[in-house]
Amino acid sequence: MSQMEKKKNFFIEHKTFTIFGILAILLILTAVFAPVVTGGVSPTEGDLMKAIQPPGPEHIFGTDRLGRDIFTRVIYGARVSLTATFSTVALIFAVGTLLGILAGYFGGAVDAVIMRIADMLIAFPGLVLALAVAGIMGASIRNAVIAIALVSWTKYARLARSLVLKIRNRDFVAAAVVTGSRTPYMLLRYMLPNVLPTLIITAATDIGGMMLELAALSFLGFGAKAPAAEWGLMLNEGRTYMESAPWLMVFPGLAIFITVVIFNMLGDSLRDILDPRNEEGGA
């Protein structure tokens, strides 16, 4: 069987992954090419003469209180929301994986310090602690990313540590140590490859949750600041007009809902493909 046929069979066999993978790519391309999709309309410039107009031929999603086109702001909001979400997931993945591997491999005082810090952070509700950190640092999308990352790395660290502990005392690891392998080589050659598949699955399934947390911080005033086009901030701006102009909240809310569903389904299908337990079950 040729390589092309194998790839074709893979996508046919994993239809859910294929469908939601295509939708995720389309979503990302929409964000990247936002100026093309919106016809060059600026998401921050408005016309007060067209304020609070309902959806119609000229503005298919309507306009907000400053006369800004909601469709344009939703499309540009994908840029901010997706960039912030991917940055958050990448940051907690890197920090959590590194600390978890170090704790599991070295043990002793290193393990105790890292795990006690993780335990202290887990003792507080994640979003509440993120609100406190974001409040101290000041409202901005960058600070919101840092705040969520500071309270969310613990899951990855604990998971990476548990996976490292399973293989740290294996014979092949002991043989590598005896033959003179240095610590950096041991971490990169044996520890990291064994934890990556599970942590990648975890990161993929966390994208939707991280997006909701970032939107929540912006909605509460601890994330993106006006006049930025960000979905959580748009919900905050539209809540005053919830009864008189519901489209101000409906369309940003739908954008969040659709994006979260796409990435949650993509993460679930990726877990079904990569989870080694599924392979064992099918063997």
Structure notes:
The protein contains twelve helices and no strands. The protein has helices at 3-13, 15-32, 34-37, 70-106, 108-122, 126-137, 141-167, 171-178, 183-219, 231-238, 247-274, 276-282. Helix 10 runs antiparallel to helix 11 (247-274). The two termini are 21 Å apart. The model is unreliable at 279-283 (pLDDT under 50).
Strand and helix layout:
Layout: H1 3-13, H2 15-32, H3 34-37, H4 70-106, H5 108-122, H6 126-137, H7 141-167, H8 171-178, H9 183-219, H10 231-238, H11 247-274, H12 276-282
Give a summary of the structure in a few sentences:
This protein has 283 residues and is an all-alpha fold. It has helices at 3-13, 15-32, 34-37, 70-106, 108-122, 126-137, 141-167, 171-178, 183-219, 231-238, 247-274, 276-282.
Portion in beta strands: under 5%
Calculate the terminal CA-CA distance, rounded to whole Å. Answer: 21 Å
Low-confidence stretches: 279-283
What string gives the helices and strands in order? HHHHHHHHHHHH
Q: What gyration radius follows from the Cα positions, in whole Å?
A: 23 Å
- Assign a percent range to the helix content: over 70%
Kindly name the structural category.
Answer: mainly alpha
Number of strands: 0
Shape: globular
Mean pLDDT: 86
Main pleated-sheet profile: none
Structure annotation, total helices = 12
